């Protein structure tokens, strides 16, 4: 992925074209994050590697072999090697995205990855993120810059997660994956079903009753059952997951406290702030200021390290 400096707010690009990093069953050629100003375009180029692009915020348009593909926040675009690819930010929006460029190496033949590799043989796949692909992306970039203890092993793990999670919701892999035999419903299965639903829909959930209605449970039974098995009420669990999501939005994205409160379906900014303080011990504003201070300090430290190399 190549881009001129003009039109970029920032660009953290890490290239390994001469000596790709061996990360398990993939070879890593490129990993980074970019924030593009209005209308900025990464011109059409041939893909020499498979590429996964995660839209962190904003909107824009990609093209693969001339086909236009609208991009929105939370979209995951996979483009295969050998195809023509371009990305452009919307005329009135800033487009921020993370990306990874890789190839499958010989060790991938030793693993059960045939279905996964088949997905990356298609020109492109576009899905909505339901598995929080942003998290391993940003963690991988952080490991690459910080290079703390066992950073290489962590980088390998995150890169493999990205490649797998990016395609897990694609129709291709769903059709190809062998059907599992139905299993008897156990306590752990029931609880996990609820936990998975909360994890995938935490922003839209407004109440325990909403979950009960959606998953066809009796409201009273669901509340008592979840608390008895897990030792925590479902309402408290939802609150914790919402605050966990709020922390991600505050730390990695460009949303105000008010926007996050609305996004997470709180009745008001005050109720969100109260819930946040109850879990974190500080207000959302204080948490955001602390994170920004840490990021600034980290950026200065990284710049100094680069200058000394």
TrEMBL record:
Question: Which InterPro entries does this chain map to?
Answer: Cupin_2, Homeodomain-like_sf, HTH-like, HTH_AraC, HTH_AraC-typ_CS, RmlC-like_jellyroll, Tscrpt_reg_AraC-type_HTH
Which UniProt keyword terms apply here? DNA-binding, Transcription, Transcription regulation
GO MF annotation, one: sequence-specific DNA binding
Q: Which domain of life is it from?
A: Bacteria
Q: Does the keyword Protein biosynthesis apply?
A: no
The record's section on Pfam families has: Cupin_2 (PF07883), HTH_18 (PF12833)
Record domain HTH araC/xylS-type: where: 192-290
- Indicate what this protein is called per its UniProt record: Helix-turn-helix domain-containing protein
Question: What species is this protein from?
Answer: Candidatus Allofournierella merdipullorum
Q: What is the lineage of its organism?
A: Bacteria, Bacillati, Bacillota, Clostridia, Eubacteriales
